[in-house]
Structure formats: structure tokens, C-alpha cells
Amino acid sequence: MSNNPRSIIAIVPAAGIGSRMGADKPKQYLMLGQQSILGHALDTLLAHPDIDQVIVALHPQDNYFNQLPQSQHPKLTQVVGGGERADSVLAALDYAHNYNPGAWALVHDAARPCVTHQDITQLIESVAIHPQGAILAAPVRDTMKRSDASGLIVHTVDRSLLWHALTPQFFPVSILRTHLSAALAAQVPITDEASAMEWAGVMPGLVNGRMDNIKVTHPDDLQLATLFLAQQ
């Protein structure tokens, strides 16, 4: 357990359909070993001693979630998500704000099953350095290229200050809710919570996270995630 006295509500946007996986169900419900991708992520969040509540935002026609054993956990609440990830996060933030407006939101991708308690605790404790909030991230290791529209290299990008954004991302519920709502109303492209904060002029902190905290996006990722979970 960290030394952080804040009330923390984990938010998991899980209303997507994961079409790139080419599967017969949303990717978060595909199996990794004995349980689903989402199940692995929820187990980690629900078991973390600093997390008071977990809110999962679901598609209105979701027929899978209530089959998960985690769906009956006393710390878990379901809300109806939206058409885009940011809409689902905002729906969960609305609920969280009514429940405890002074809480902090720990937003985590449904398709990241390999997140560890160590990284979550490290992110929570980073508030001592980044009181505005922070995200887990990993420094870019590969040489980065920028291309033109035809797929030809235009130039090599300096990777020294580039990071891969991961989740969880950790911000005050009320502030994130305000900025995310305003960004969506302004039709700003929002790819993660940090991008809404950045648009509002906030500079979130970066917390170096584990590279095995991968997002399952393509079929090949299933085997990789299975390997990482086995090693953990």
C-alpha cells in the first residue's frame, strides 16, 4: 500500500468492440488462460489496497460482462458507456463525481491485462512530485521515422524525449471531468485522458512504467500477453 491518503476510483472504459482483432466478441472478453483480458485487468485493480471503487463503462448492449466473476465484486459499479473511449470515461467520471467529487480517477484500458500493483502504486505516489496528475509511460527505444502519405521516409525523429503513453492515467475526478467535457464539446480529438488535460493547459507528469504493460490490439498480442502474465 502507498502512503497516499486520497480516495481513488479506478475507471475502466470497456464499451469498445475491438474490430481490429477480427474476433466474434469484443477483444476485452477474449480469453487469456483461464479468464478474459478484462478479467485480468479488473483482478489487479480490485485487489489493489489503495483503490476504493472500480467503475466499468459498458456498451448498452453488452451481453458478456455479467458472465465475469468480477461483475459481482462489492467494489465494482457498472455504468453505460458511449460511442468513443472518451465518452465512456466521461460517463464514469460523472458517476464518480456524484459519488465522491474529491476523489482521484485512475483510468485504465480494458485491454491492458498485464498492469502490476507495483506500477499502480508508483503512479499513485507520483502525486507528491506531480500534484497536477500523471500517467504511466515508457521511453521510446526504437529509431522513429516520419513518412509521407505514400509511405516514404521523410526524416528520422529524435526519440530522446519521446514516450509511449500507457495506462493507468491518474487525475483528480472533478478536474479531469471538467476538461474532458470541455474538450469533447469543442470537438477536440481526445485519445487519452492526458490529451484532454494538455488541451486545457495542464502538463501531466510521466511515470516510467513497465514495457510489458501492453495493450491487446491485434491477434499477435494475445500470445505476448499470455507470456507476460506467466512471467509475472
From TrEMBL:
GO terms for biological process: isopentenyl diphosphate biosynthetic process, methylerythritol 4-phosphate pathway. The record marks 20, 27 as: Transition state stabilizer. InterPro entries: IspD, IspD/TarI, IspD/TarI_cytidylyltransf_bact, Nucleotide-diphossugar_trans. Coiled coil: none annotated. Catalyzes the formation of 4-diphosphocytidyl-2-C-methyl-D-erythritol from CTP and 2-C-methyl-D-erythritol 4-phosphate (MEP). Belongs to the IspD/TarI cytidylyltransferase family. IspD subfamily. HAMAP family: IspD. This is 2-C-methyl-D-erythritol 4-phosphate cytidylyltransferase. It comes from Shewanella frigidimarina. The lineage of its organism: Bacteria, Pseudomonadati, Pseudomonadota, Gammaproteobacteria, Alteromonadales. The gene is ispD.
